[in-house]
User: Which sequence fits this backbone?
């Protein structure tokens, strides 16, 4: 199997193939894992921005590789540059010049890396000059689920648990077969800073603490009963990652941000709902959980929109707003009644499995998930090559099947199946393909959109369309305990389907929620809003949902994976990976759990090296313990216990 690019679908397929005993080669022309699913340190993101703003053409200096093509073969050239990112604009709302001579602090010593950050040579030079700080080393150690002293990970229930970090940084485990909530309610003491003015953060501080940031190119959450969580548990890949609960669901109504009661306890403890509204809401949510059993309630409205259906359910305008935008999270104009009921049921079914909201977020960013599956593939013999571009696919004229690829070194590599990410296909292959676009914005702010006693909140907010014909905007706000930003800052992701450029689509929402003025220009009414310290806008291609037949002239054994979609969850990527795997190997199980080490039976030839003190069998090698994140801070190999 030859996989080209290391996005989430390709990484899942590679892991599944390696687990079923296939030989896998996984190559990526970039110098980091994840493609458009990656996460970056702040300096890495600045390098990524610069690279996508310049968009320099790649010259094909050597044509010697064409000698490798036989007479009965033809080539399908692959794209030489990435065209999936457009309209990249970044803004600094502080003195950018003051950070010119500031170097990124806390650089770790050079270690063998499994995932690389997006930082270029400048960041690598700073690693050489800056000695590792004690806090950085402690942070790196805390990312390893098992230390060299023989300590076990926090999640150890048969290796099938997901490790959840709660607000007070304690951990709990969730068995794959159980849905009961292990996380107890934690009361966090009111923060001293919350009552005071937010701490002044400068751009130079952001640059200096750049390694504290893990900034996702695509912003998503994991449904606690979604396909990705089920796959992580089933395959035991969950042991390579840690997760944090999304702590609250927010709504934007009448110009204000307010918290939405979701669970039964939240509804009855809510002070913003009257007693009558609480009964109305609970009655409707109970109906949504088993709406299929009561078709008489909705069958007359199947041709209507979900918003029209809600108006017939004796719900107040505020309850209709909460259900439509914060629970179902669907469009007011395009979503049918059945789609809205299905979305509401999915939300409710995910409540209570790991917390009071349906969502989990991976610590250190969404970019950890592809790397977790890459690790599983590597553990079972997969080979990974970054900075390794592919020139073309080699196709046999007689059979019409792809036989090999030719890389940028002029090497010909043969395989039976080829997995290609859409961005690698040239315009000649994609003439009949019509792409959608996603508008993205990433902000670094100095306080939360809704301040409470606890500063460590992971929030999701859906902002209804500002104008007719505009999409709703999904806002995800991350705190520093998610390991995605430095202390006293918040990382805010905004996402919506594109109608124009990302800045035109999202800036009106940013202006509603945040203060974009500099400190000197701030007016009194803007003082209550969080201040934006830095922002970037960009458009990303959405290639999901495109049929393989839309691509011209692709052989039957070449499978195309899409990039990220605009949905909140990851179901599209998991479905695509499983579909492609089953087409290639219909008789194989998709991502079965790995065997327990104590169940492995060694042959005599494998036992002999152990007696001499050396063991080179792959089963006996120590497994990697933590992923090298896109920020370049983590080592790929777990240290062995060398204590005497």
Assistant:
């Amino acid at each position: 199997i030859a996989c080209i690019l290391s996005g989430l679908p390709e990484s899942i397929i590679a892991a599944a193939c390696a687990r079923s005993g296939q030989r896998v080669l996984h190559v990526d022309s970039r110098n980091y894992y994840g493609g458009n699913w990656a996460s970056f340190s702040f300096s890495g993101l600045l390098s990524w921005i610069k690279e996508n703003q310049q968009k320099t053409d790649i010259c094909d200096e050597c044509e010697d590789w064409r000698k490798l093509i036989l007479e009965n073969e033809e080539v399908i050239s692959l794209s030489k540059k990435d065209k999936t990112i457009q309209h990249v604009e970044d803004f600094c709302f502080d003195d950018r010049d003051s950070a010119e001579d500031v170097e990124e602090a806390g650089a770790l010593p050079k270690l063998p890396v499994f995932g690389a950050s997006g930082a270029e040579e400048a960041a690598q030079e700073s690693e050489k000059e800056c000695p590792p700080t004690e806090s950085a080393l402690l942070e790196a150690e805390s990312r390893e689920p098992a230390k060299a002293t023989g300590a076990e990970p926090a999640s150890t229930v048969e290796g099938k648990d997901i490790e959840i970090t709660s607000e007070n940084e304690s951990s709990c485990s969730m068995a794959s077969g159980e849905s009961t909530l292990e996380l107890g309610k934690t009361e966090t003491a009111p923060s001293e800073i919350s009552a005071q003015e937010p701490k002044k953060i400068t751009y130079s501080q952001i640059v200096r603490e750049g390694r504290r940031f893990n900034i996702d190119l695509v912003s998503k959450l994991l449904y606690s009963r979604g396909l990705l969580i089920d796959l992580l548990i089933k395959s035991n890949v969950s042991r390579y990652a840690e997760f944090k609960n999304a702590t609250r669901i927010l709504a934007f109504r009448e110009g204000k941000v307010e918290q939405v009661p979701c669970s039964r306890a939240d509804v009855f403890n809510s002070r913003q709902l009257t007693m009558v509204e609480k009964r109305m809401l609970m009655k409707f949510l109970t109906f949504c959980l088993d709406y299929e059993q009561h078709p008489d309630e909705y069958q007359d409205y199947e041709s209507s929109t979900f918003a029209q259906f809600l108006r017939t359910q004796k719900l107040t305008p505020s309850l209709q707003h909460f259900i439509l935008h914060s629970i179902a999270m669907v469009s007011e104009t395009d979503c049918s009644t059945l789609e809205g009921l299905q979305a509401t049921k999915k939300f409710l079914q995910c409540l209570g499995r790991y917390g009071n909201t349906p969502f989990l977020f991976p610590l250190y960013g969404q970019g950890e998930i592809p790397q977790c599956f890459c690790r599983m593939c590597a553990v079972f013999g997969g080979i990974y090559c970054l900075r390794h571009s592919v020139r073309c696919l080699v196709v046999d004229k007689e059979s019409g099947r792809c036989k090999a690829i030719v890389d940028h070194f002029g090497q010909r590599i043969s395989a039976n199946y080829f997995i290609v990410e859409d961005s690698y296909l040239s315009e000649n292959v994609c003439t009949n393909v019509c792409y959608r676009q996603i508008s993205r914005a990433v902000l670094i702010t100095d306080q939360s959109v809704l301040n409470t006693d606890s500063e460590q909140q992971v929030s999701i907010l859906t902002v209804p369309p500002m104008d007719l014909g505009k999409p709703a905007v999904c806002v995800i706000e991350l705190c520093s305990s998610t390991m995605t930003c430095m202390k006293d800052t918040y990382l805010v992701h905004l996402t919506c389907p594109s109608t124009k450029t990302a800045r035109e689509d999202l800036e009106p929402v940013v202006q509603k929620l945040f203060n974009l003025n500099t400190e000197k220009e701030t007016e009194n009414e803007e003082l209550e809003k969080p201040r934006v310290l830095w922002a970037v806008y960009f458009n990303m291609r959405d290639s999901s949902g495109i049929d393989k037949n839309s691509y011209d002239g692709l052989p039957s054994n070449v499978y195309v994976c899409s990039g990220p979609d605009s949905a909140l969850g990851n179901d599209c990527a998991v479905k695509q990976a499983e579909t492609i795997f089953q087409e290639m190997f219909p008789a194989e199980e998709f991502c079965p759990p790995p065997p327990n080490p104590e169940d492995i039976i060694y042959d005599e030839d494998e036992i002999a090296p152990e007696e001499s003190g050396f063991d080179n069998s792959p089963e006996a090698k120590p497994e990697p313990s933590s992923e090298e994140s896109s920020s370049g801070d983590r080592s790929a190999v777990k240290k062995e216990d060398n204590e005497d």
